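Minutes, project check-in

Agenda point 3 was the complex the collaborators sent over. CS summarized: two entities, 810 residues total, and the question is how they sit relative to each other. Sequences were read into the notes so everyone works from the same version.
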Amino acid sequence: MAKERSHKAQIVIDRLGKKLNRQIVGSLVACVHCGNCTDACHYVLANPGDPTYAPAYKADKIRSIFKRHYDWTGRIFPWWVHAKSLHTDEDLEELKDIVFGKCTNCRRCTINCPMGVDLATFNRMARGLLVSVGVMPEGVAVVSKDQWEIGNQMGVLKEDYVDTLEWLTEEMQMEYPKSPGIPIDTVGADVVYSINPREVKYDPRTISDAAMIFNEAGENWTMPAEDWDMTNFGLFSGDDDLGGGVARRLYEKVVELKGKKLVISECGHGYRSTRCEGPNWAQHDVSFPMESSVITMINYIKEGKIKVDKSKNTEKMTFHDSCNNARSCGLTEEPRELLNLVCENFQEMYPNRTENYCCTGGGGAMSMSEYTPQRLISAKVKADQLKATGASVVVTSCHNCVDGLADLIKHYKLDMKVTQLVNLVANALVIDKPIEVPTEEVSIPAAVTPVVAEAACLQGYKILVADDEPDFVTFVSTVLEDNGAEIIKAYDGNQALELARKEKPDLMTLDITMPGKSGIEVFEILRSDDELADIPVCIMTGKPELRKLIYDRAVKPPEGYVDKPIDEESIILNIRRILELAKSKGK
Amino acid sequence: MFDLEFARGTLHDIALAIMMIVYFIRLYWLTRFTAGKERQAPTGRGDTNPRKGFIYSWGNVGMPWAMESTRSKLFLYFQFVIFHLGVTAAIILMFSISFYFKDSPLPPQLALAFKIIIGAAFTVGVIRIIRRIGSKYIRAISSPDDHFSLWLLTTWFLFGYMAAPNNLAGGEWKLLTFFTMGSFFLIYVQFSKISHYLYYPFTRYYLGKSLGRRGVFPIKRFQ
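CS then shared the predicted structure for the full assembly.
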């Protein structure tokens, strides 16, 4: 008697047939189980003795379904070729844990397969099938929803996005009064610059650094006020409809603005999605050129539009290739060329380029908190690679990699920091004209420094710092006090709430994991309390898996979110941004 | 009557015909799936293109240095080369005996060449059987078809080695077994993993074309 099948399992099987194309079928039938891919996978290397991480093993979990329903031998003698159908929702959950939790779609096994089997492509297909029946990690669901509904994957509202750009313009103009800042929605610009929402939310310095470079180059550029997100969660979720929809929105925005070229900020999956896969998903031929900002910056230097002084970046640096850039877009030489132009001491990492190991945060892994423990175990391979370089800075051209690398650096206690090329170029930028600054300080030398806080810029603000790590509280408090803020300290959740009620601070920094009430509980209580709901909150956590807090729509999301480890500059920049935006909204 | 004459004549022809028919059905089946189209403008290095990409991809099999997985395991790579040379030699031997040396032994030098290649392939087959059973990783991904196909070919090599001189002096059982197994192999191949030879040009073509367009293939390595 035929085994009963759940409704969802039946849909997955039916839709599998519609997803198959010649490339995918080729990859599904060609594997000879030679095992050559095994050592190519960072999950295998970090979990010796566990064959369930082997690419061929994982691939077979998808292949077995195909064989059972489409392959001749598999249909007649399933046991002979390990063909197996899906029957229950538990089968789907099991498949979910493999395709989302044990593979970052980094494609390293693909380039090491003698048969040319492209596991990453059909793993993505399997993700898409599961997503189509609602079986996916919670983070994938939340981020996809935000990208569908709000237009960007971090749910940044238009008002907050534009406020941030305007605030950054004001910051730039305080330092350089003649700076045009960040032009928004300029029609007919030569360059339309698209970014990752992470830049607005956590790392606005990358936007101001890029703006400084564009302006110094005399570029006629703009940023769209809407449909500006070049990232695309469709790549990770396997949802081609989402992928196509997101890509099309951006393409149409460039056309609407009559932009001549789309420049994509440094982001591996964003670049791949927008530049390479987007036209395929959207079934849309793009009429304008698209390029990575890395290439734009190289051209500015080569054409003499900007001058750089590499002696501004003296630390020993290594470069991490994003999987999407290197193995799917061929962007390997340009970042190195640029790095060599703006830094003095570059140390290559081995293996590199197309053979580089994943940062382990790829494939959307950073948004799938349930798989964080195994992700961090697999990160040992990358950690060893980083350590062997002896570098103090790892440079990458990908926002996802920045988060993945920062996380593993913290986990494996490496003495390194992560940065991007745009930051290094901005730091190395030489500006010939004298810089006017609205302070009484001595004039700044003819080179630009990153956006830095003026002394006492937080004067008059009362800030509550809540964290159970005394060293961290001391560090943050010192930084904020040095800049004029009045500090209140709390070391657990209950104390944080009590002090918030008593002191009514202008801003609160909040750790997530604290004794007593957790940061999540404190945050929800704050937001639900009419008197406290408007206190701006900046999450400072070493637990990136708790990002979902940001996306939790039950209460208004926090105004800021910063990953630990955190440096002085980031603290000031983020706190100032939140306070000034709050002030402008009349809080 | 099932004898050597039948095995190297009628049976062989039937097996060959079935193989060819199924081969074309397989090809037809595969080409019924639409090939995905790449709309993107080329990326990556300017010195490559889809054509260079797929040529490189096809040639990959002869470039052990091109992939880390072969570069770092040269012993496995040479096993692969010997094993596939053995398959080719055994097939040629079968055809040679069927069509050219039906009634006479093979020239000694030719027989020796077959013995060396097929004998080496047999040795590799044994090593591969041990690896397939002994390695936890390979065992976990092996189906009955994987085991059977390997045993089938390795045993066929053994009989190919013994049958190579095409000399009936020691009894015809060696040749009879070699031809019978060979015919079974020809029929079985399209229903098993051995059919990978059919898909190889397609998978590598499409991967190479796509990665050539994206400036990834040919891979350039820098140390």
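Noted in discussion: Chain B touches chain A through 61 residues (CB under 8 Å).
Follow-up: revisit at the next meeting once the mutant set is ready.
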